[in-house]
Design a protein that fits this description.
single chain; binds 1,4-dihydronicotinamide adenine dinucleotide; alpha/beta; Rossmann fold; 5-stranded mixed sheet; binds 2-oxoglutaric acid; 45% helix; nucleotide binding
């Protein structure tokens, strides 16, 4: 288990499973929830581990280990993405499924939380190998998931194409077209308008609300973004369109900085060709860690967990942190950021736009009736602003940080459902 040394305080855990348990305990203790509710919510209900063989292009076989965790289904079927990453662990997938439960609760979706992960780096495989790896994982988990049971979606290093392959495999196995088994699909096979942009769009909605609260005009606000994939890249474009200055961006290879603002479209062209670290129209190249400590108005961690810890939180200068990524700040970092007056929009709120439009996609699949992009975006706007203001209200009422407030809202909704079902 990972941990870092912290002077004068206990060792800081970087295990996401321990972190989410701590977050649940903090919120539950303020609400004085009965212990049996917390005990149920502190661990996933079901976890599946699979090992499956994939034939490589050269005829060799590689065996991949993957997981699917279903945390809690009191509010409805479990829901959450599938990640392909070399550093995936079982504890990480469990934690991500738990964050999904609380995320769905914050935005009031009729879902519990699930998550999947495969230990693999898809960047090292050909398209055909990636297809077999994706289909193989769905084949291995097909009896565990389903449109009214557990509905996957994209996450790190998976995308609409991967969802399309997985939906096709599931449909073939069940002998019927089953678009509702997975969301984030290509539009031609039951994907929703707006799903590809939804995580970033939802995040930008919360940033606009936060800036309003801080009396900061959106125009010319400076922004640094760590991670330039689905969440980070689209957020950069949406914010640039609003007149924000995107001064720093990084991906897994490194980062770039320009105090006058980067040309986001140009950076996208460079990223499509290689990595943004090869982009030359910059003031300087920076590391992804340096990016976190820049003097900017808004910081968007949009890559992986545990990037802001007790080790660097004191040096973070942003006024607002919008957690597009899941779990970027540890509880120790939260304490420091709160003491310093940083407004942290927690992951379970800031990145809830993705699962919200996934829910819209699933609803459209079940009804076999499709909405316009405008309808999707209007409904997303409504859900995100309502959730933002509910979190703000409860946080102010109980004098807690926004993460604790967001967990409290969810805990109230989930515990009510658990009681209504007679579980507690
Ligand atoms: N895709 C979605 O709909 C949602 C994604 N999220 C979260 O957003 C985060 C990013 O996910 P996506 O954008 O979907 O993944 P993605 O696979 O589209 O992009 C990931 C990006 O992170 C970069 N990256 C990886 N390691 C990095 C590092 N050490 N430093 C800087 N950049 C690094 C990659 O180069 C890539 O640009 C994850 O935490 C994910 O769980 C949350 C909600 C929904
Ligand atoms: O769209 C979804 O169902 C879930 C996306 C996801 O994995 C997340 O919100 O972390």
């Amino acid at each position: 288990m990972q941990s870092v040394n912290v002077t004068n305080v206990e060792q800081e855990s970087l295990n996401p499973y321990e972190i989410v348990q701590k977050q649940i305990e903090t919120a539950a203790s303020i609400l004085k929830l009965p212990e049996n509710i917390t005990e149920i919510l502190k661990r996933p209900k079901r976890v599946l581990t699979v090992n499956y063989a994939v034939k490589m292009d050269d005829g060799s076989i590689e065996v991949f280990e993957g997981y699917r965790s279903q945390h809690n289904d009191a509010l409805g079927p479990t829901k959450g993405g599938i990640r392909f990453h070399p550093d995936v662990t079982l504890d990480e997938v469990k934690a991500l499924s738990m964050w999904m439960t609380f995320k769905c609760g914050v935005v009031g979706l009729p879902y519990g939380g699930g998550k999947g992960g495969v230990i693999a780096d898809p960047r090292h495989y050909s398209l055909a190998e990636k297809e077999r790896m994706s289909r193989g994982f769905m084949e291995a988990i097909a009896d565990f998931v389903g449109p009214d049971k557990d509905i996957p979606a994209p996450d790190v290093y998976t995308n609409a194409q991967v969802m399309g392959w997985m939906m096709d495999t599931y449909s073939k196995m069940k002998g019927k077209f089953s678009p509702g088994v997975i969301t984030g699909k290509p539009l031609s096979i039951g994907g929703s308008q707006g799903r590809n942009e939804a995580t970033a769009r939802g995040c930008v909605i919360t940033i606009k609300e936060a800036l309003k609260e801080l009396d900061l005009p959106v125009e010319n606000v400076t922004v640094a973004i760590q991670g330039f994939g689905n969440a980070g890249r689209i957020a950069s474009r949406l914010l640039a369109d609003l007149g924000c200055k995107i001064v720093a961006i990084s991906d897994s290879q490194g980062g770039i900085y320009h105090s006058e603002g980067l040309d986001v479209d140009d950076v996208c062209v460079c990223k499509d060709e290689s990595s943004i670290s090869n982009y030359t129209a910059v003031e300087r190249h920076i590391t992804s860690d340096e990016l976190l400590e820049l003097d900017v108005d808004v910081l968007i961690p949009a890559a992986l967990e545990n990037v802001i810890t007790s080790q660097n939180a004191e040096r973070v200068k942003a006024k607002v942190i919008a957690e597009a990524a899941n779990g970027p700040c540890t509880p120790e970092a939260d304490k420091i950021l709160n003491k310093n007056g940083t407004l942290v929009i927690p992951d379970i709120l800031a990145n809830a736009g993705g699962v919200t439009v996934s829910y819209f996609e699933w609803v459209q699949n079940l009804a076999n009736y499709y909405w316009t992009e405008e309808e999707v975006n209007d409904r997303l706007q409504q859900k995100m602003t309502t959730a933002y203001n509910e979190v703000k209200e409860i946080s102010e009422k109980y004098a807690v940080d926004r993460r604790t407030g967001a967990f409290m809202i969810s805990l109230l909704r989930i515990s009510e459902a658990m009681k209504a079902r007679g579980w507690v």
